[in-house]
Amino acid sequence: MWIAISALNLALAVMLGAFGAHGLKAHANEAQLAWWHTATDYFFYHALGLLALAILTKVTPQLPIKASFFLIQIGIIFFCGSLYVMALGLPRILGAITPIGGAFMIAGWLLLAWNAFKYAK
Predict the structure, then answer these.
(1) What is the SS3 string spanning the chain?
(2) Are 76 and 98 in contact (CB under 8 A)?
(3) Contact, 108 vs 75, CB < 8 A?
């Protein structure tokens, strides 16, 4: 299941990246394009990270990654999603959600580090 979710994230990141590069370019201002670009970059990085976690569960099944995976996925939705909707012209107040998404991503990676340290002992 984890690999499938990761693959769906990556496919969606490609689609949204293509839309931003081709469909949005003619209708958005510079700031909106920058938000879209940032969202797509973070989407790709973290989707690849989720894929790495999914593979890691196959290699090291005793390392708990479920909570990290969910935290990072929620972070993608909040962080990238808020930037995408602002780039589409929705109110900039939605930018208040962006740091919450970033905090979820950070928490997911820190939890993975914590679990990896515990596993290494």
Answers:
(1) CHHHHHHHHHHHHHHHHHHHHHHCCCCCCHHHHHHHHHHHHHHHHHHHHHHHHHHHHHHCCCCCCHHHHHHHHHHHHHHHHHHHHHHCCCCHHHHHCHHHHHHHHHHHHHHHHHHHHHHHC
(2) no
(3) yes
pLDDT digits over 29-45, tens only? 999 999 999 999 999 99
Confidence band for 121, pLDDT divided at 50, 70 and 90:
confident
Q: Is the backbone of residue 91 left (phi > 0), alpha (psi -120 to 50) or beta?
A: beta
Q: What does the angle CA 28 – CA 16 – CA 69 come to, to the nearest 5 degrees? A: 130
Distance CA 116, CA 121 (A): 9
- Residue whose pair of structure tokens reads 């935290």 in the numeric block: 71
pTM for the whole structure: 0.93
In this structure, the dihedral spanned by the alpha carbons of residues 44, 49, 54 and 58, taken in order and rounded to 10 degrees, is 140
Model pLDDT for residues 7-33, shown as the tens digit of each residue:
999 999 999 999 998 999 888 999 999
